[in-house]
Amino acid sequence: MTEQNKSKNTEEILGIANNLKWELGMGIHDKIVSSLYADAAQIARKTVSIEGDKPAFSLDRKIDKIVTSRWSGFPIMFVLLAVVFWVTISGANYPSGLLASLLVDTLHPILKSGADSFMPWWLSGLLIDGAYLAMAWVISVMLPPMAIFFPLFTLLEDLGYLPRVAFNMDSLFRKAGAHGKQALTMSMGFGCNAAGVIAARVIDSPRERLIAIITNNFSLCNGRWPTQILIATIFIGGMVSPFWAGLVSTGAVVGVAVLGIAFSLIVSWVLSRSVLKGEASTFSLELPPYRPPRVLQTLYTSLIDRTLFVLWRAVVFAVPAGMVIWLVSNIHIGGVSLAEHFIDWSNPFAVVFGLNGVILLAYIIAIPANEIVIPTILMLTVLVTGMSGVGEGSGVMFELDSITSTENILRAGGWTLLTGINLMLFSLLHNPCSTTIYTIYKETKSAKWTLIATLLPIVLGFVVCFFTAQLWYLFA
Amino acid sequence: MEQPVMALVLGLVAVGTLIWVFWPKKGLLARLGKVRMSSQRVLLEDTLKYLFDCEYKGIACNLNSAAGNLNISADQMAKLMAHLKDMGLVVFEGHNIHLTDTGKSYALRIVRVHRIWERFLADETGVQHMDWHGEADIQEHQLSLEEANRIAARMGNPAFDPHGDPIPSTEGEIPPFSGRPLSSLKEGEVAQIVHIEDEPHYIFEQLSALGLYPGMQVYQLDVQQGKITFAADGNECVLTPLFASAITVQPLPKAEPIQEGYQRLSELQPDETANIVGISSYCRGLQRRRLMDFGIVPGNSITAELRSASGDPVGYRILGTTIAIRKDQANLIFINNIKKEQHEQSA
Question: Transmembrane ranges (chain B) (predicted)?
């Protein structure tokens, strides 16, 4: 056969194939796939015999009837989640304090005096007061709660309970254009947003997964709970008599967390109907059988894969940020530090939003971890007000054991009830920490979605703070 | 007290402006897009498309019908036609207008882009089936033929769009129009739905709400003045002739009518078992593949097992695993032979 004939034949065959496609009709691909599946199923029915397993299965059904029942489904879920959070918070207190006293109170002065003996003051300041202290802070505040929360969460997952939570919650999330499994990534976000973003891998539909990733930041993470509790205790609890203070400030913190859930649902709804409208969407949710959790394996994987992984990323970002924090408060131009320049310059702008320059600067330089926002705010306030006798010097973050002395510093910095409320709102609604931003980029592989996930909450935060502040100025 | 009021007003105005600019379909950006849409070229291409459609279906076409179809005045249409004639794309024969060969191949290129894009939206994205046509009407003027060909190649060069219309080949070939309106089918005839007209919109929505889709078998039961009764895959439907004429069918003279009707999976109550008949062709792309992965294929049996605490979704047992399916998906899965499941009591 000559070359010419060959190419002519090819064209002929392609032409015939094309015409055949039209004659066969549109369902041909599906019919082929369906018949393949049907044949496979037929063969399996004939050749595979299933023995036993029945009792276990009927026990599963009994448990399922209870945990998915109209009456007991939701109460069981809330109680279990509340227990997980309570164990995390109360269990983390002691090791966190221990780590802080070891890394911050004991090791920091030793390192500092050691470094001072052979380094110039600026180098030891940069490395020890800046880089080391930020890292120590992140580790001591972040590690214990995550090391408790993640294994507990993974145990529930391994047990087979979490898919039932998604199953029960799905109708709420469906109305918001999201997937029921977003209930899980949201809960995970209460521990750590970066881990919540990674957890969104369980959602296999592209659109719903992006929604879960972008809205995860509205879950108040472990690094922001202490800020909320501290500020609520000082400013909101302080409004009422000591008898009611605990209840009122707890109510305020829970209110902020619920507001975050509301934002997450509303933003999901808007996203699914606007920018994400065209992304492919599917729903699938398997309800695996219950099984006894593999405790050791769970401990290992959740500690290595989740806790250490997230912690490592946080530390990597905290070290350079710690240096920046030290530098802005120690580089002086015209006798005034960079930090003070920025704070003076941004104050008029910040007041419009009911915040102040210190808060804005703290949120910019403490971007690696929400945990170091309060220490940074305290350090900067002392720096700006020129208070003496508190803190450890410019560029050295600190926290105080007593709430009253913290309150004194903040009041001296000009804080009012409005500043407190708006800080709580802004702490809920601002850009994710850099660890989370980096994780979002890693998970989505898209600069566009990373940018949206970063900017959307901060724009919302400024809008909400603006209206709160202006209404406050109007009525107060 | 003046300042906060001013600031609040300014803030509200700023938020309002942002919403106004970005609001889907009615916002400024969307409107700007629409203005760009009605440019001269778009009108010319739409006219060519209309002329091709008339010729393909063997309908005579004149200035007024074309003007009506594009929703512009007859004067404007006359100018457009004169322009098309100057370009050598159409010829006049008395009142009737025909496409020249060049005009026809131009029209076929637009039709190809339009149908490939519809197919792409249906199979690869989450765009709802009501929006396929409108989005493709925009893309057909923006996407180049080369880009459309690349998309088609990635989808395995599909031969039909999701409404059942053939996609013209790259050489501009298209099979001859062989369908008839459902309204013309005689009692006792069996046919297959090959196309559901996507314009006007309200008829298309109504028909898809009834669960009619290309590929279904229809069996004409009764034709009366103002009422047509037929069985679609065994289920009885009644339509007015206007609605029935939006459905194009291809007679299947040798086929046996499907006797047994089907129900939808959403009707299955807990502890009932049924046989799967199929998945509606409105469930496409990723979602369809997912369901098939789970074993939702004709012939398998499926059992409703438990309802979630909020009522939707429902957990179904299939091939030994339990999967949750939402109600709107379960509506697109067809089943028959519903039986109450026998509970084996462990003795």
Answer: 6-23
